[in-house]
Amino acid sequence: MDKAFSGKVIIIGSGNWGSTLALLFSKKNQIYLWTIDQQEADEINKDRESRFLPGVKLPKNIIVEKKFSHRIEAEDIVITAIPSRKIDELTDEFIKNNVKKCIILSASKGVEFSTLKTVGQIIQDKLPKMQFATLSGPTIARELAEGLPAKAILASRDIALLFQLQKVLENDTLKFDFSRDVHGVELAAALKGLIAVAVGLADGFGFKTNVFGLIMTYGLDEFVNVMKFLGVYHKTAYGIAGIGDLITTCISENSRNRQFGKFLAQGFSRDDALHKVGMEVEGVSMAKTVRKLSKFNISIPLISCITRIIFEDVKDIKTEFLNTLNSISG
């Protein structure tokens, strides 16, 4: 444990990603893994295993509790690993529990549908006294849980905070690069899921790497267009928080977004495909958000096609998909 760090490391969310982060960060710290209810906490404590990470035992220095079982102090690092749609509700819980100040590290990816705000913007708007950073990059949970190496991005406007988080959390499995472009890192993380859904569709149709390469190329170009439109520093898209995360999410068969797209191509409805994946698919939430941008003059034909396939009654999704790919040039 890092002796210079006097606070607690608390992870809110005991799903696939939260359990993986608990496992990783327990290498140097005692971890408090917070669940939605006591029953789930008791089950994980008893079995030392999350149902989202079957076969992976959680060490004894991960203490699983119902969320807000004890007070959050100013020096604590609180890591959010919940779906982005639940972040607003979580900030209300912080206020209700009189949490005045701490370090919040967001590991949640997505954009709020009604406002187009990122997770960081929601948290900082409602909890302005918090020190804030975000964690993103090419990080497939199952690979990390199996001890395979990766590098992620820590992004914050506070440079001292980045070094502090690195010192407390970095270990022999997960290394960190730094960025000050919090908004760009968050937006890239949210957008890449849509492109992974497209690769999943292609996979489900029986296409191979020729088409995968096209999708990733066109997809990167389109989410740069979205970032430019929203006034975000678009060069972040060409780093590991952008193209690195994009490629990883597209090529990994463990990617929930890719799995979802593959099920759609195999004839499952949106709801049935989500049920088969069994976990949150942030690309679907982002597709709902991106539909709002269709009213503006932004060149995103591939992303628009994916949103139509997800939300509209497209009779022949394979033809719609191929026609869109063939219509794109450049």
Describe, in plain words, how this protein is organized in 3D:
- The chain is an alpha/beta fold and 330 residues long.
- The chain has two domains: 172 residues, Rossmann fold (3-Layer(aba) Sandwich), CATH 3.40.50.720; 139 residues, Orthogonal Bundle (N-(1-d-carboxylethyl)-l-norvaline Dehydrogenase, domain 2), CATH 1.10.1040.
- Helices cover 48% and strands 12% of the residues.
- The protein contains 14 helices and eight strands.
- It has an eight-stranded mixed β-sheet with strand order 3-2-1-4-5-6-7-8, with helices on both faces.
- α3 runs parallel beside α4, α12 crosses α13 and α13 runs antiparallel to α14.
- The protein starts with 8 loop residues before the first strand and ends with a helix.
- The model has no long low-confidence stretch (mean pLDDT 92).
Quick take:
This protein has 330 residues and is of the alpha/beta class. It has helices at 16-25, 38-47, 87-96, 119-126, 141-145, 159-169, 182-204, 209-229, 240-251, 256-265, 270-277, 282-290, 301-311, 317-327; strands spanning 9-12, 31-35, 62-66, 77-80, 103-106, 131-136, 150-155, 174-179.
